[in-house]
Amino acid sequence: MSDVAGLHARLRADLLQWYDHNARALPWRVGPDARRRGERPDAYRVWLSEIMLQQTTTVHAAPYFERFTHRWPDVSALAQADDAEVMAAWAGLGYYARARNLLACARAVVRDHGGVFPDTEAGLKTLPGIGSYTAAAIAAIAFDRPANVVDGNVERVMARLHAHRSPLPAAKPELAALAALFVTPDRPGDWAQALMDLGAGVCRPRSPVCEACPLAFGCAARSEGQANRYPLKAPKKARPHRQGHVWVLHDSAGQVALVKRPARGLLGGMMGLPTSEWVQGQDEPALKAPAPVAADWQDAGSVEHVFTHFSLSLSVHVARGTGDFDWKPVDEARAALPSVFRKALERALASL
Ligand code: SF4
């Protein structure tokens, strides 16, 4: 065995041993002890957790995961779910295209695969909403396939371990190639999760805890004394800013007027409040957009929200009135609305 291969083997063995004693208890995880006793992960739970974790942290995702699996305990149950109910349960997790794909995927698994998830990366990638990363994660964690599971955490660990000098995002393929050197048929699911846990709790983005790290003995960034410097990053482009209006219409029975957003596009298929176009720069016609119905509209201030590709300021207007809308009691509206509209609703209610 070459020196490099020997170092990799030792790093791998030490990280797996660390994982055996330090694995996080997560509601979708079958930990190392349970695996040794022969327990296998449920592909449905692994898939659901991976889709949720694409856009949020384990702490934020956990209660959503518990609610989803309680309400829809397996892929067949989810495939038969009511679209609106799933979208409402997803509210607060952001990126609603993922919730739509979640349903499409569950239905494809039932329709095309007899209710059983494919057990290879290639098979998983044929399903809606499952890209390369998610396919690799499910293949490794649910089916113990030797897949190279590379997310931002793994890129960071690899960049530090090797003191890799080219910046992200261009360095992604190089960091993935470095990560691939550690993938073997021995415990691939545990290896993927061990790296995730190391990235989340030890090799953290801002303050890595090198003194508690099982890889410290072989880490180039640590021996340079510059763990925080990696991964190098190319300068970011500024996020564009958009603005618009949102109208909160309420009636004498304490209900709020909602609208269903078009199926395609941002927040597609979700419930929303009536809103103008969201425009970048000083687009006066759009900024003076007409209210959805005539009423005694009052200015309720504004709310800010940050999406992945732009930030948004919405001027909030509130009035009592009637009209052809989907009227919901305030609590139901809160539960059904995505965060940006929920903020606007709270702003309007606070102004009354
Ligand atoms: Fe990350 Fe520090 Fe461990 Fe290197 S030694 S992998 S920088 S936590």
Can you put this structure into words, describing what you see?
The chain is of the alpha+beta class and 352 residues long. It folds into two domains: 3-229, Hypothetical protein, domain 2 (Endonuclease III, domain 1); 241-351, Alpha-Beta Complex (Nucleoside Triphosphate Pyrophosphohydrolase), CATH 3.90.79. 45% of the residues lie in helices and 12% in strands. The protein has 16 helices and seven strands. It has helices at 3-22, 32-36, 43-53, 58-71, 75-79, 83-90, 96-113, 121-125, 132-143, 152-161, 172-180, 188-201, 220-224, 284-287, 330-336, 339-351; strands spanning 241-250, 255-260, 271-272, 279-280, 298-306, 311-320, 326-329. The strands form two sheets. Strands 4-1-6-5 form a four-stranded mixed sheet, with helices on one face. The chain has a three-stranded antiparallel sheet with strand order 3-2-7. A hairpin with a 4-residue loop joins strand 5 and strand 6. The radius of gyration is 24 Å and the shape is globular. The termini are far apart. The structure holds iron/sulfur cluster. Residues 157, 160-161, 202-203, 208, 210, 213, 215-216, 219, 221-222, 227 line the site of iron/sulfur cluster. Iron/sulfur cluster (SF4) is lined by residues 157, 160-161, 202-203, 208, 210, 213, 215-216, 219, 221-222, 227.
List keywords for this structure.
alpha+beta, 16 helices, binds iron/sulfur cluster, Nucleoside Triphosphate Pyrophosphohydrolase, 3-stranded antiparallel beta sheet, 2 domains, single chain, Endonuclease III, domain 1, 12% strand, 4-stranded mixed beta sheet, 352 residues
